[in-house]
Amino acid sequence: MDEHPFYFSCNGSRIFAILHSPEQRAGGESGKGYIFCAPLGEEQVRTRRIFTTFARELARRGSWVLRFDYRGEGDSDGHFEDASLETRVEDVRAAISELRRRAGVERVGLLGLRLGGTLALLAGAERGEVEDLVLWAPIVDIYGYLYSALRANLATQTLVYREIRATRDELLERCRRGEPVNVQGFLFTWALFEQARAIDLSQHAQQYRGRSLVIDLARSTRDVGGDGNRSEARCLYEWLAASGVSDLMSIQREFSWEETPTWNPRPERLFSQTLEWVDACRQPKKVEYGTPRPVSE
Amino acid sequence: MEHPVQFLSEAGHRLMGILHVPHGPGRPAGYGLVLLNIGLHYRVCHNRLFVKLARALSREGYHVLRFDTHGVGDSEGEIEAGSVLVHFDRVQRGLFVPDTRAALDHLSRELGLERFVLAGLCGGALTAIHTAAEDRRVQGVIFIAGPMTVTSPTEDREFHPWEAGQWLAGYRARLRNPRAWARLVSGKSDYGMMVRALVVKMHHRWCQMWTGSALGRPGAAPGGHFNTHYLDSFQRSLQYALSRLIPTLRGEGREGVVRLPRAR
């Protein structure tokens, strides 16, 4: 395994990254590189190993892979509360440039899990340099996702005070007045909520012209696929399919980003379905774009 | 100031870490700190606790290394899929001690450091104490929320009397809360947990009275779910610590005052 940890600079801050080089025995480089976009906060901590394992799998098959930590997360500079959705999209863009510079690849794909998938789409829709998007259980309703994450604060209140002293709406109001909300040790600011509310993901999705794979990770076998399944992933797939080539898969979730009852660094179904799709995308795709759209309006 | 480092474990896996070097007003401390993570979580720890801690300590003049043990985070090696409880059980018994020794070897080799303090959270605390019990380079352990009871997947999970006490304290605190009473009469409360907590606590009390032992179990000190591996390592690391202290005491003319068994 050839894996090189390093820092690169983005707006004066150091971003921690690991570059996986393609293995020689893979039958030559694919000439393609993937950038992995991690989920937010504690979800990133819990799913780190899955990204590591999948990056090694892609490198074994001849691709370059760059994994990195957003500013304010992991080993990168900064504090979580100073970062925003905008800075995270900037970080993805900087990672694309860094991968191109270091690996010399022209063709770039983005792979994201949860909010990482959403950020990958936002970055990919902006510029015509992303050929493929792989979105694992992407977040579509970003504001709803952040609001839902406030539950963790309620759980902490119950543990500490044995009662809930502030509801989610009260926490949000405090947040609006400048008091960040602690969610599992990460401070959520009002800017994060405001930006989330301003993003219309359907427009960004319809602006993306490359290929995409959306994988819905269903909680149970009963929720997998089916016509009645109106998951966020299906919704996003329909937007993407309206303007580009998109595929949707629905498989049962083999790991958890909320808690860790079982250790599964190699979710086999997710990996095999994704690899099959990635292998089918080895041929370059010409991507034509119109005017770039800012992340939030 | 921090930079990534990679070093080989005793089993030949390449382990990934971040080394924080002293900077700022603090003077170099002369020994290194190694932060040991919770069970299978990677080197940043929950809510980046270790990133913040390591950056603060390096400003105070310490070399701090936080690293991923084999099969975790960005390191090589595999930890097979399975129940987290199974893996916690292995961590409690010293799974990551060889990796920790390799981290100390790396710091000795690269920085010339020979004295270390290990700091660990939860399973990391146990790894710290197990390593301290067998490696004389370890001068101290910062034991953060290390569990003293074994979480064994091979036995039914015991509802510990302490845990039952916590539940009962919670119920007591809610006695004057009308919403809690409303939940109780509307059938929304967990009656099973209430009864179980009460029975376990009463049984524990009865055992205490019967045996006169604070542990409360008939003939059970320190058996049951107490982590005897931890107790053994704690005793041995304490002996090391005291054996280092004795020459100092002797130098002050107190020879013979303290007599302790020699460390194994």
TrEMBL record, chain B:
It comes from the Bacteria. This is Serine aminopeptidase S33 domain-containing protein. SUPFAM superfamilies: alpha/beta-Hydrolases. It comes from candidate division TA06 bacterium DG_24. InterPro entries: AB_hydrolase_fold, FrsA_esterase, Hydrolase_4. Residues 43-159 form the Serine aminopeptidase S33 domain.
